[in-house]
Amino acid sequence: MKKMEQATAIKAVFTAIFAFISALLGDLAIPVLLMVACSVIDYFTGLGASPYRKTDGDGSISSYKSIRGIIKKVCMWLLVVVGAIIDQLLIYTTDKIGISMPFDFLIACIVAIWIICNELISILENLKDMGVNIPAFLTPIVKNIQSQVSDKTGQAADNDESGDQ
Fold first, then answer.
1. What's the distance, Cα to Cα, between the start and end of the chain in Å?
2. The whole model's pTM is what?
């Protein structure tokens, strides 16, 4: 019976955390959680793929490269914060001139979706480097979603971020 109580307590904690995040971020909660999950998966698949990659060095993982990868991911998350700030400025400005905006976090969601696509492409590349057979249709689907986001925002697709830890 004790295990059942622990499982219930764990579920309650996760529910409370998700409820807090959802209340704080609203519609942005799911994209942000997906982005963080993809970033963590990409980081660890990147670590796993590093011995398989042909590099100038010995393919080992250095603390410097690892910390640099983590900092880069956190900075990518900050892009969503920048998008959220732009969203709030747009809402504030349009409210002052009497226009009601039908969204809270449109720009931030678009940025998060673009980052998620980047991370998914990188995860697929990491898995491929480890020798995992990737279905031929999977990478083009993710790249197509990313290019759709870029096209809809009037921005050229830029996949330079993929493949990084």
1. 43
2. 0.76
